[in-house]
Specification:
Helix 5 (88-109) runs parallel beside helix 8 (153-164) and helix 7 (121-141) runs antiparallel to helix 12. The chain is an all-alpha fold. It is built from twelve helices and two strands. A two-stranded parallel ribbon has the order 1-2. The radius of gyration is 19 Å and the shape is globular. The protein has one domain.
Length: 282
């Protein structure tokens, strides 16, 4: 059965949701699934999510353009000149590469499950609550004393593995990586900055890989047209850029408990709607 055509209102709203939630530790994919089901009665789909993430990743590329350019230059310089391999930017280049491997491998192996069963609202609501407790534990037990200059390869591997958990909607990419960073003793700002850089290769690759599927009519769910995908992606970019700046300022002086409370409340609300039959899980 052919899915319904997405309306312009749905494309605009979902693009805004993507931009607002991508960088906050509350799960953008989970929010897109919840909002599209509760307000529009259907699923926007994993491909729509992946493609609109290109907008938010473009925001990261522009916001961190100077850092990214410096890291790339230092990485290539260090490859040919061993005396530069102690530079933080050279090491950061390797940490991003190393940290991207887990999500790349698992994303490829479990692509079909991510697009189908993992989008069940029972699972998403449960993960919102369960991972809220993980974030709370990271905030409570994390020493938060290590600056970004103290990053090591071990940190990249662990935080990269945590990023892979975000393949499950409801977990949150930034929530996973920032929590792992806090458990490792990093400051919130250091964990958030590395989290943003680490997301770039994985999300860009995911979005580009999903482009062909996004233009194919879905058997179920909402079907977005090319112009709708473009507008939603541009909206996600604009709001996402503002979200990056806000979060980096917020984590300097505020704890992650604010997001913990929100995740638990949202998870409980969705579970209640599911239990009473107000919304469908699939």
């Amino acid at each position: 059965m052919m899915g319904e055509a997405m309306s312009w209102l749905q494309a605009i709203v979902l693009g805004a949701v993507q931009g607002l939630t991508e960088f906050l530790p509350i799960s953008s994919s989970g929010h897109l699934r919840i909002v599209s089901e509760i307000f529009f009665g259907d699923d926007a789909g994993a491909s729509f999510t992946a493609v609109t993430q290109l907008g938010t990743e473009a925001a990261v590329l522009i916001y961190f353009a100077r850092d990214i350019g410096r890291i790339i230059a230092a990485w290539f310089r260090g490859l040919f000149h061993p005396e530069h391999r102690g530079d933080l930017d050279y090491r950061m280049g390797w940490y991003v590469i190393i940290g991207t491997i887990p999500v790349g491998v698992l994303g490829f192996l479990f692509k079909d499950q991510i697009r189908t069963g993992a989008r069940n609202l029972w699972l998403i609501a449960t993960m919102l609550i369960v991972f809220a407790l993980v974030i709370a534990a990271a905030e409570y037990y994390g020493r938060k004393v290590r600056p970004v200059e103290d990053l090591r390869a071990k940190d990249g591997i662990i935080m990269g593995s945590a990023q892979a958990l975000a393949l499950i909607p409801g977990v949150s990419r930034s929530g996973g990586t920032i929590s792992a960073g806090l458990f490792l003793g990093l400051t919130r700002e250091a964990a958030a900055r590395y989290s943003f850089l680490l997301a770039i290769p994985a999300v860009v690759a995911s979005g580009l890989f999903s482009l062909p599927d996004a233009f194919e009519p879905a058997g179920e769910g909402l079907n977005a047209s090319g112009p709708q995908l473009l507008v939603a992606t541009v909206i996600a970019f604009a709001i996402g850029y503002a979200s990056i700046a806000w979060l980096l300022r917020f984590v300097v002086d505020h704890s992650m408990y604010w997001f913990v409370g929100y995740r638990i409340i949202l998870g409980v609300v969705v579970l209640s709607l599911l239990a009473t039959g107000v919304v469908s899980a699939t």
